[in-house]
Amino acid sequence: MTRVVTLPGDGIGPEIMPAALEVLGALVSVDVEEHLFGGASIDAHGVALTDEVLAACAGSDAVLLAAVGGPKWDTTDPDKPRPEQGLLGLRKELGLFANLRPVRALPALYSASPLREERIAGTDLLVVRELTGGIYFGAKTRGTTSASDLCEYSTAEIERIARVAFKAARRRVTSVDKANVLETSRLWREVVVSVHTNEFPEVELEHVLVDNAAMQLVSSPSRFDVIVTENMFGDILSDEAAMITGSIGMLPSASLGADGPGVFEPVHGSAPDIAGQGIANPLAMFLSVALLLRHGLHLEAEAVAIESAVDRALADGLRTHDLGGDASTAQATAAVLAQL
């Protein structure tokens, strides 16, 4: 039996996870094993990710994560645990170096985006973010009057993420860096060029500085096919790209390694301001289930079924609160299940 570990986490996580399992269960039969993670794990065990939960995730076929974090656990004390440490630890220990974040502008939601329809129409891009290197994982120091974070990348780390991007591309890879300032970006650019020349010469390659990329994402997002970039830049740009869809509540993600289970999660946070109200948008969670089916369980037809069910539900008028409507989590779930 296929085993999926679920990590509901914090905030709206425990509300959207059951909805996601309803959608998953409508298509496939899996053995589900739930564990505490993030802030919930800090409250129970003092750490965001226990060895037991890590072992369970490593032994699974896929990991489905909802959301972590919240003001309850916010701290600037480096000695206190933070929910995000669970995410970083899970990615590092499972070797999840590639984060895929697809961004599609749906005609049904053109009016929900803060960008004009003519700007976003036809947008269908993929952000490929390097996930286990860079400044998030570099050595850190903290003194009384100064602090530092080391940003470091190796050739091998850049090569493997570049290959993921080129394999995913339909026509073009846009490599985003800051090569006019950062030495890590200069290495990044050189290595991406090498991978392109030696392995994927049939795919178009362009280089765009990160500040220019941020501007182009809101001025002409439909020009992009696959964007590949380092950890922090990818974190920022993919959240910016969420506005193309109308809400960050619409973006799923997949975190993959060379082998072993992947982690599938919505891009949005734990939304503590609406937790417990039953109004959280579960659609990004459903689309993350689709990525789990596609990349984790290799069930393409079932993945497409969920994606098209979400599209049809939106076309039929489904709107959650973040999309300008009043549909509850339960109503959104029912609408997608009806389409399935």
How would you characterize this protein structure?
With 340 residues, the chain is of the alpha/beta class. The protein folds into 2 domains: 1-109 and 252-340, Isopropylmalate Dehydrogenase (3-Layer(aba) Sandwich); 114-245, Isopropylmalate Dehydrogenase. Helices cover 41% and strands 18% of the residues. The chain has 12 helices and 12 strands. The strands form 2 sheets. A 10-stranded mixed beta sheet has the order 2-1-3-12-11-4-5-10-8-9, sandwiched between helices. β8, α7 (183-199) and β9 (204-209) form a beta-alpha-beta unit. The longest helix has 17 residues, at 183-199.
Q: CATH homologous superfamily of the largest domain, by name?
A: Isopropylmalate Dehydrogenase
Helix content: 40-55%
Which ranges are low-confidence, i.e. pLDDT below 50, for 5 or more consecutive residues? Answer: none
What order do the strands of the largest sheet run in, or round the barrel if closed? 2-1-3-12-11-4-5-10-8-9
Mean pLDDT, as a whole number? 95
Q: Which class do the helix and strand fractions yield?
A: alpha/beta
Q: Given the C-alpha coordinates, what overall shape results? A: globular
The tally of helices reads 12
Give the key terms.
340 residues; alpha/beta; Isopropylmalate Dehydrogenase; 10-stranded mixed β-sheet; globular
Task: Give a quick precis of the structure.
By secondary structure, the chain is of the alpha/beta class. The chain is about 40% helix and about 20% strand. Helix 1 links the parallel strand 1 and strand 2.
Structural topology:
Elements: E1 3-9, H1 13-25, E2 31-34, H2 39-45, H3 51-58, E3 62-67, H4 83-94, E4 98-104, H5 117-120, E5 124-130, E6 140-142, E7 147-149, H6 155-168, E8 172-177, H7 183-199, E9 204-209, H8 210-219, E10 226-229, H9 231-245, E11 252-256, E12 263-266, H10 283-296, H11 300-315, H12 329-339
Parallel strand pairs: 1-2, 1-3, 3-12, 5-10, 8-9, 8-10
Antiparallel strand pairs: 4-5, 4-11, 6-7, 11-12
Helix pairs in contact: 1-10, 1-12, 6-7, 8-9, 10-11, 11-12
